[in-house]
Amino acid sequence: MVTLTIDGTEITVAEGTNLVEAAATVGIEVPTYCYHPGLSVVGQCRICFVEVEGLPRLVTACSTPVQPEMVVYTASDRVREARAAVMEFLLENHPLDCPVCDQAGECGLQDYSVEHGLDSTHMVDRRRTYPGFERRMIGPHVVQNQNRCIHCTRCIRFTTEIAETSDLTMKSRGNHSYIDTFDGRPLDNPWSACVADVCPVGALTVSEFRFRARVWHLEETKSVCPGCSIGCNVFLGHLDGKVHRFVPRENAEVNGWWMCDYGRFLAEGLNYRTLDVPLERFGDSDRRFPWDAALSEVARWLREAPQPLVIASANLSNEALFVVRRNLVEEAHMSVVVPVYEGDARRIKNGRGVWIDSVDAHPNSTGARQLGLATADAANLESYLRDGSGPVVVLDAHAHPWLMSDSAAEITADRQVAVLARYRTPLVDSASLVLPLASWAETEGTYTSSTGRVQLARRALPPRGQARTAWEVVYRLALELGIEQERSISARILFAEMAAEVAAFSGMTWGRLEGDPGMPVHVEVRGVG
Amino acid sequence: MPRLKPPFPAVVGVFGCPTVVNNVETLACVPHIIEHGGAWFAGIGTERSKGPKLFCVSGHVERPGVYEAPMGVTFREIIDELCGGVRGGKRLKAFIPGGSSAPVLPADKVDTPADFESVAQAGSMLGSGGVIVMDETVDMVWALENLLVFYAHESCGQCTPCREGSDWAVDILRRIRRGQGQQGDIETLRRIGRFASQGMTICPLGDAFCGPISSFLDHFGHEFEEAISKAPSMPPKTLPILPVRSDRELFGV
Questions:
Q1: Cα(B99)–Cα(B113) distance, rounded to whole angstroms?
Q2: pLDDT score at A389
Q3: Interval A55-78: pLDDT, tens
Q4: Chain B CA closest to residue A150
Q5: Integer Cα distance of B76 and A110 in angstroms
Q6: Could you tell me where the beta strands, DSSP code E, fall in A225-333?
Q7: 3 state DSSP class of A350
Q8: Pairing of the two strands A309-311 and A335-339
Q9: What average pLDDT does the segment A1-21 reach?
Q10: Phi, psi of A251, rounded to the nearest 5 degrees
Q11: DSSP-derived secondary structure letter, A315
């Protein structure tokens, strides 16, 4: 540990910490452009100058490690003057097209020119431009506007150090150097949109989100990516009831500062919903049906039929699966199966530079296994359905590709089927009862990642129409069945009950999940499943 | 590309190994010192700057070329005796004593001895010993522009002050030479000179182009002012009022 003084405050930080991070521990923000905690340090934007007592020249905070007894000033006159000059240099050739720039609102130049820049410029000459580079798709997801670039090389370092694909490179030199893809090939690595996240200005933007919303209007909810079992932490950006984007949220243990393109572009899909009221089969078509009647109808089936089958989902939260386990498995002794499947291989580098791999396409199959629910692949699922004849309750019609196929509808054609769904699938079209299911953005809950980390995804939006979350539906069903009692209930209460009952979650509290970057499940049960 | 230091090349250099970087001139002295001994070598030159020095003289002299002379020889001796004087018998206007990145010195400093201390005292540096001689016909705005075009081209583009500053300075000087100089230009050039040097950049290229900017303005600022004053005054920045064509009376109060 090293003790030093920053702006009159004495602090003690670990050896090797740089001055940017050290200042941040006492809430002093040193401006940075080229510095990124997840990337190597190059010290070339020169905005992070600080004054160190005893040194004749200003030093860049990002490249200076703490030394014992160091006395640092981050806002002395010399520092402010130098920063203002660097800001002027950076803005000298910047097009200043903020009104039509999609980065506006989360732009490093805007933020720091207010705080550190001059209120005018000495620039009267023509600005440097890169004709033909103003709106260029450099990959499937990323749009480049080289005119706005400040040459911080964060994007290049991202593709070299994190993606390890080296797609981007700096071409030419001096004031006319520009970012281009290496060898003219497109920037199409699986994490390509992260270059737009690391870009501090509007030079690289994500084509899918471009001009959808001004970022200062967006509400950002802390959530987790539903794409696979890795469980990357995200901010879910939404506006007026519509999900607009995912951006990675820092979590050194899981996804570092990154996320893959597949997960990122699931965000738009969360808005897709064609079902928002319960429906009852009516001849060849269907008709609206009240929730309460629908639930008592399902409860009646379950009471009367000998062998009901409940198909849960590894996309549901731990709380929903816990309600299923407690009420349907332990109390009602129903057979419950969780369909799982292996999707495409996904990987992400965590904050320590270690790859995390996953082929598990579900955000919570680990949680399902730890709760002791039986998992099944497509073949198993098919034989379960073929062997039985009782009613079927599907808690998530979109849990498995096979469930969305025609064969799932054919096998269950002559049975009583209740399906929770967001949009129509063959199974929904043939089901006796269709119940609207809340989407990921409309559900609050915890999910256990493949690395055994329980993470909290907050609810961003109220469920649209009459949609309900899965845990609520199962709880109300249990009420109808007489298993549960009417009581105050929420995901948070269920989590507390789960923590008391299930070993994997013991000792965890909702409150700590809100603050911590997720909590690891207990070591002795981590191997289960 | 220059990289962040430390670690310095002497610790981590080529192929990740400790590396010594030396001039050929330095290495060329080694065999002579071995052959004749240190005392012989120290006998040449001045008390603090010992040994001979190669002067690569270019510009407006009769016989440009590389000359070896003991340290402490004056620039007048180099120009008049070794190189045969200023070309065409013209008057000397200025000279750059140590390569294009060294601050320029006016003609009245020509009696400065060419050793490290005296040149530093005169406000420049001996550097590589590349002497550039300029006679009275030289337009100093053009000369500075010519130097800076080189530095703007050489800037690698990493550090903001050097990348942006070198090109900006070229733009300003070109504009002044086109006869479109503006009142704030000298101030802006000085500002670039101040904030792209003195450790504001990773490598010394920032200092290299700022030295000429500041010294040209210090010694020959009047030429820049003259060039700017010749410029036609800029049109006013307020918007012109368009003539309104209308049959009706406007704003009839």
A1: 16
A2: 84
A3: 999 999 999 999 999 999 999 999
A4: B160
A5: 55
A6: 233-239, 242-248, 279-282, 285-288, 309-311
A7: coil
A8: parallel
A9: 92
A10: -150, 105
A11: T
CA distance A415 to A430: 10
Q: What is the Rg, in whole angstroms, of the alpha carbon atoms belonging to chain B?
A: 24
How confident is the prediction for chain A on average, in pLDDT? 91
Instruction: Report the alpha-carbon distance of residue B253 to residue B233 in Å, rounded.
Output: 39
> Distance (Å, rounded) from C-alpha A411 to C-alpha A136?
50
Which of A47, A85, A174 has the CB atom closest to B163's CB atom?
A: A174
Look up residue B74 and give its amino acid: T
Contact predicate A246/A196, CB 8 Å: no
**pLDDT score of B3:** 84
Contact B201 A46 (CB under 8 A): yes
* Disruptive mutation site among B3, B148, B158 for chain A (greatest number of A CBs within 10 Å): B158
What SS3 state is found at A222?
A: strand
Residue of chain B whose alpha carbon sits nearest to that of A175: B163
User: Would you place residue A81 in the very low, low, confident or very high pLDDT band (cuts 50, 70, 90)?
Assistant: very high
Q: What is the band of A140 on the pLDDT scale with cuts at 50, 70, 90?
A: very high
pLDDT of A524 > 60? The answer is no
Q: State both tokens at A218.
A: 């967006």
pLDDT > 90: what percent of chain A? 78
At residue A17, the pLDDT reads 93
* CA angle (A383 as vertex; A381, A388 as ends), nearest 5: 100
Placement of tokens 């910047």 in the chain: A94
Nearest partner of A91 among A120, A115, A58, A62, judged by Cα: A120
Cβ contact, residue pair B200, A63, below 8 Å: no
Determine the Cα–Cα distance for residues A157 and A151; give it in Å rounded to an integer. 12
Confidence (pLDDT) at B239: 63
B244 confidence band (pLDDT: 50, 70, 90): low
Is the CB of B164 less than 8 angstroms away from the CB of A45? no
DSSP conformation letters of A90-101: HHHS----GGG-
Residue A139 pLDDT more than 50? yes
The residues facing A339 across adjacent strands are A376
pLDDT in tens, A399-413: 999 999 999 999 988
The DSSP 8-state label assigned to residue A326 in this structure reads I
The DSSP string of A440-471 is GGG--EEEE-TTSEEEEE---SPPSTT-B-HH
Percent of chain A with pLDDT over 70: 98
Query: Quick check: B153 contacting A, CB < 8 Å?
Result: yes
Distance set, CA A33 to CA A60, A149, B155, B159, B197 (Å): 12, 11, 20, 12, 20
Is the backbone peptide bond immediately before B6 cis, with ω within 30 degrees of 0? yes
Beta bridge partners of A311: A337, A394
With b for 16 or more beta-carbon neighbours within 10 A and e for fewer, the B36-73 pattern comes to: eeeeebeebbbeebbbbbebebebbbeebeebebbbbb
How distant is the alpha carbon of residue B213 from its chain centre?
Answer: 7
Torsion of CA B128, B134, B138, B141, to 10 degrees: 30
Alpha-carbon distance A278 to A294, whole Å?
A: 7
Residue B20 carries which side chain, given as an amino acid letter? V
Collapsing DSSP to helix, strand or coil, A367 comes out as: helix
For B111, counting Cβ atoms within 10 Å of its Cβ (0-12 exposed, 13-18 middle, 19+ buried), the class is exposed
Residues of chain A that touch chain B, judged by Cβ-Cβ distance less than 8 Å: 41-47, 49, 56-59, 63, 82, 85-86, 89-90, 92-93, 122-126, 128, 150-151, 153, 170, 172-177
Distance (Å, whole) CA A507 – CA A496: 9
